[in-house]
Structures are given as structure tokens and as C-alpha cells.
Fold this sequence. Notes:
This protein is an alpha/beta fold. It has two domains: 1-94 and 242-333, 3-Layer(aba) Sandwich (Isopropylmalate Dehydrogenase), CATH 3.40.718.10; 107-238, Isopropylmalate Dehydrogenase (3-Layer(aba) Sandwich), CATH 3.40.718. It contains eleven helices and twelve strands.
Amino acid sequence: MAHQVCIIKGDGIGPEITAATQSILHAAGVEIDWIEVDAGLRCVEAGEPIVPDRTIQKIREVGVALKAPMTTPIGKGSVSPNVTLRKRLDLFACVRPARSLPGVPTPFEGLDIVIFRENTEDLYAQIEYMATPTVATGIKLISEYASERIIRAAFEFARKNNRRSVTCVHKANIMKVADGLFLRTFQRVREDYPDIESWDTIVDALCMQLVTKWRNFDVLVMPNLYGDIVSDLAAGMMGGLGVAPGGNYGDGCAVFEAVHGSAPKYEGLDKVNPMALILSATLMLRHLGETAAAKAIESAVERTLIKGIKTYDLFGDAKTSEFAAAVVGELKG
């Protein structure tokens, strides 16, 4: 029986990497009934909200979506389609794996971490205002409820996937109330997981340690802002945003995405790396129970890289479509 999956083809280079990813999923033998839904710049240009209600309703109904990058219009009052999706679908857990890949040169050999970023609160709750004409104020919102569910999600993932440790990342030494609540919640929740090693660290110390002692870390859990920064640091360690997958999980649905931008200057050039969306699709396959297909695609991607077939960001000359065709060839091999 085919899986139903909503697809957001995105803006800029989005449709190109979407086509590449869909061809690989088809070659892997996964039956998917794709349901295209609208979001992004095309909706704004048509006079609609950047994420229309019908799109939210359809993703809720189906439960799974694969999303290519979208463009946020520039200007006062513009809202991010990504933030809109996360908030309206209550996708509270942004999960970003980062691991070194064969064929992708990096000083961080043996990197293998998973970042759990709380997705709904912190400074990204977008509660900000002008206190006076010359003073802007932003509210850092941290609740025990949201903290506990992201922390439990990290521990449950670690237990299910035989990961050895969970590290809480915070700045409670300075922000004793907000980050203090997040840390205290972690300290309470970890008592329910005595089989998993756990400790906490300050976010600035973590950034230093990640690039010097990356093998010491496994699963990391943190509030929204730190998660945004640290996950991009980890993406750089594994080879760049072009190879970094991501998934956003809620209680009722999940949205998987390439975490890079829509790169409009490359639109139509068949140039960009589709790996981020391809690997995000393998996260989606695992979510759907198609673990064997996910492993097959990941292995095919690695064999393609080892053969030197890479896009420009990895110092190769393969086009988007050529890289995808090579992965398809490995799958059919």
C-alpha cells in the first residue's frame, strides 16, 4: 500500500532538488502517493498567506510532508513560512543529525551527533515590540511543558537508537530564570532514564568542545535559539548545509526538510546539491517504517560520493540531475 505524503516543492531551486529526490525514492521501490500542497513565495505573489490554511489542513490530515526550501519575502511584516509551519502544526522537535560522510573531506572524522532543538518557544516565539522609539524588546519564552517534551523526546530517541548519552545545552549561568527552568527540567527528567549517561554544558563551551572533542558528544538537547546556531555549526562540520538533513516532529505530524535556503540565484541552473533533501527523505522513510529503503538510499549516496561524483559545493562538477542519476544507478546497480 502506498504511503501518502504531502510535498512542498518550494521556491528557487526547490523544484529541482524535489524532482531529484522523488526520482531516488522511486528507484528505491518505495510507493508514495505524492500530494502537492502550496506554500512560500508563490502564495504571497498570488495574494495568499505564505502558508495557506488549506496546506495546514492537508498536512494535518495526511500526517507527513517533505518540504523543499522556501523564500521569505523581505520587508516589515513578512513572516517565515518555516516558522509558520512549525507553530501551526506544533512541530515541537527539530531533529538534525550530523555525521561525517565517506567522500566528503572534513577534519571531523567520526562525527556522529543528533541535535534536538525545541522548536516553538525561546526568542523565536516572535514576541517583540518597540518599548520606546529607540529601544526594541524581545521576550525569551521558556515553559516547563515545552522543555519537558523536547527533553523526553531526546532521551526516548537515545534509548530507542542505542545512543550512549544526552547532553543538555544552556546558558543558565547567565539567564538563571529562563535557561534555569530548562536545565532544572532536564535534571528532573533524566532521573527517568538511568540507563543513559547525561550531563549539561554551557552553549559557548559546547561550541568550542564540538570542534575539538566532537567524539565526546552523542545526542544534544537545547532551546530554540541555541539549536538553530549549533545545528548549523554541526552542518558545517559534516560538509555544509548542502548535505545536512532535518526533520520536524509533532504529536500528530512530521515535516522533513532541506535546511538550506532557496538559493534563487541558482534557480534553473541544475547546479545545487540535492543531498540535504535526499537525506531528509531518508529520515522520512524511517518515520514511515521504510528503514530498509532509507538505508539503501544512504548507502547509494555514500557510494556515489566515494566515486567522486559531487556537486560544486563539494568541489565537484556534477549537476543536480547528474548526481541524482548516479544515486539511482547505484540503487539499481
